[in-house]
Design a protein that fits this description.
This protein is mainly alpha-helical and about 325 residues long. The protein has 13 helices and four strands. InterPro entries: Glutathione-S-Trfase_C_sf, Glutathione_S-Trfase, Metaxin_GST, Mito_Protein_Transport_Metaxin, Sam37/metaxin_N.
């Protein structure tokens, strides 16, 4: 087998990745122990479908969790071999249930809630991207999430009613998950399955991300066995990520007081204001330019030349 490489969104808050789909794939690969070289990507534009994750195994390029699971199964890597027919069917049904009931709430909390988007989601994804892509992709992902919510709940005119409905459905889903897990270590016995990777990828970002509007996050944290489930998988499979985050966090806290004191005593406050205004003007100009440039990029993304680019790359390999 050729060396497997995986491009993902970077991690934050002790998470191996900030992204739901990336975390699914990464967790599953941790479960099965397949050797993989992980890259934290900062530009999804040239990914085959314009999004992450992307797994490459020789000339094989895979861009979804389902594709990755099927491909690794063909190589005799699988966490689901211990599932009987009934359990496999149950896992499939639960996966669909999560997609219908928890995924809309997840997207709402991350992308549609304006306070969460402004203070957490957008800065986090912008930090992971290089300029000028950080002006484009967060807004693009937010628009996609809003379109999905509008398609599902278009009959509601009040966003507060939409939020209430979405979170109520998600809370019922989480209770069902909690009841199914019970006191077990995993959902189907004492060994992890692909379904455990999916559930972890949904719940871990909700537990870890410091959302200002934390309705959904607080509900997850309030369910003891689901919180233990997240902590257990994180500790067993991503302990190095958590330890590094805690180390960096402790370092920031120890130096924070000194930095704040130095900032408060900075001698030239007028210069600070001028620099801030200049930076804001540059950022606004860059944003305006990026809007026009990315319209051209999006047109190119669907063109024959864009497709030929990847066909030629595969031929060269």
């Amino acid at each position: 087998m050729a060396s497997i490489e995986l491009d993902i969104w970077r991690g934050e808050w002790g998470l191996a990745s900030i992204d739901l789909e990336c975390l699914k794939v990464l967790t599953y690969m941790k479960f099965i122990g397949v050797p993989v070289k992980v890259h934290e990507a900062n530009n999804p534009y040239f990914a085959p479908k314009g999004h992450l994750p992307v797994m490459r195994d020789g000339r094989k390029v895979l861009t979804s969790f389902e594709e990755v699971v099927d491909h690794l199964k063909s190589l005799h890597y699988s966490t689901d071999v211990h599932l009987n027919t009934k359990q496999a069917a149950e896992a499939s049904a639960f996966t669909q249930y999560l997609r219908e009931k928890l995924y809309p709430a997840y997207q709402y909390a991350w992308w549609v809630d304006e306070k969460n988007y402004t203070e957490i989601t957008r800065p986090t994804y912008a930090k992971a991207l290089r300029i000028p892509f950080n002006f484009y992709y967060p807004g693009r992902y937010q628009n996609s999430a809003k379109e999905m919510i509008d398609a599902l709940y278009g009959e509601h005119t009040d966003l507060r009613e939409i939020e209430k409905t979405i979170y109520q459905e998600a809370e019922k889903c989480l209770k069902t998950l909690s009841d199914r897990l019970g006191e077990s270590e995993y959902f189907f016995g004492n060994r992890p399955s692909s379904f455990d990777a999916i559930v972890f990828a949904y719940l871990a970002p909700l537990v870890k991300a410091p959302f200002p509007n934390a309705t959904l996050s607080n509900h997850v944290k309030g369910i003891a066995n689901l919180s233990r489930f997240v902590a257990r998988i994180n500790q067993k499979n991503f302990r190095h990520v958590t330890d590094e985050y805690n180390r960096q966090n402790s370092k920031k806290q120890s130096t924070g007081t000194q930095s704040d004191r130095e900032a408060a005593n900075f001698p030239n406050q007028t210069r600070n204001k001028i620099l801030a205004a200049l930076f804001a003007a540059i950022a606004m100009t860059g944003y305006a330019m990026a809007n026009g440039m990315f319209q051209d990029l999006k047109d190119f993304e669907h063109s024959r030349d864009y497709n030929d680019l990847f066909e030629n790359e595969e031929d060269d390999n």
